Amino acid sequence: MHLTAEEVEKLVDLDELIAEMRDALIALSAGKVIQPVRSVLTTEEPPGWFAVMPAIHGDVMGAKLVTVFPRNAGTHLHTHQALIVLFSARTGEPVATLDGRVITAWRTAAVSALATQALAHPEARVLTILGSGVQARTHFTALSKVRQFSEVRVWSRTPENAARFAQEIGAKVMDLEEAIRGADVICSVTNAGEAFVRGEWLKERVHVNAVGAVGLAARELDDAVMQGAAIVVEQRKAAGRESAEIMCSGSAIYAELGEILAQTKTKPLQSKTVYKSLGVAVEDVSAARLIWRRAVSRYT
């Protein structure tokens, strides 16, 4: 079976996906998932990268093959493109291929929603979204599942994109500093290369989902954001190799998100929390299995 981006989009059930991501991350932190850190190849001209992300979880094994080409921005092509291949973990038989771009967009937002639900203050009411692309839209939808926000703020480096996105979701467009000051929850979902979120702008009690920067050459958050915060990641091993924000700031990782969700690690006492999202293979494989099973049920 092959499922296109359009078919995957129709089959996504966000509530089910959030629950699936919860189970996958708990299994990962419990040592029940086989998952190496992704392998990455880079291209020089045009600059981009190609990554292979394999995992074995329960009755399936698979891999996401993903490319990121920033210069596609503003063209008819997406900057992120991907394919997920699923196999039976019992027989080795290939069972499905799925478009991975849509799955990546939704599973990333679903995990940020879990982090927000677990780490943000219960009375959090002001949400700031930094960015105006695909991830900004999926994050707004997913976070709205776990928190009721009375105010949503939007900032983007492209004002017309920010205005369009804000109109879609009923948010306010603000300057960067204004959007960050006083926010209870901040989602940074940009393709920035250098840190632009400054710790001096954050309120004392705040939760930050840092999503956009992956690798050792890109950051969204400066050292002042990271220092003194409880840092939560999907996988320590991956974060220790792939997060410039963690490595450059010298910040210690408090916990994996799966540990928090399983309550094998207590919720951090710090009032400032940062969930550093990198994306790991078990999220893709588990999400693809969920979508594939929904397709089998619907189409057969």
What are the secondary-structure elements, in order, as H or E? EHHEEEEEEHEHEHEHEEHEHHEHEH
Let me know the largest β-sheet: 8 strands, parallel
**Strand-residue proportion:** 25-35%
SSE-based structural type: alpha/beta
Might you state the CATH topology name of the largest domain? Answer: Rossmann fold
**What would you report as the Rg, rounded to the nearest angstrom?**
18 Å
What is the CATH architecture term of the largest domain? Answer: 3-Layer(aba) Sandwich
The number of distinct β-strands equals 15
Number of domains: 2
CATH class of the largest domain: Alpha Beta
Shape: globular
Strand order of the largest sheet: 10-9-8-11-12-15-13-14
Instruction: Tell me, rounded to a whole number, the average pLDDT.
Output: 95
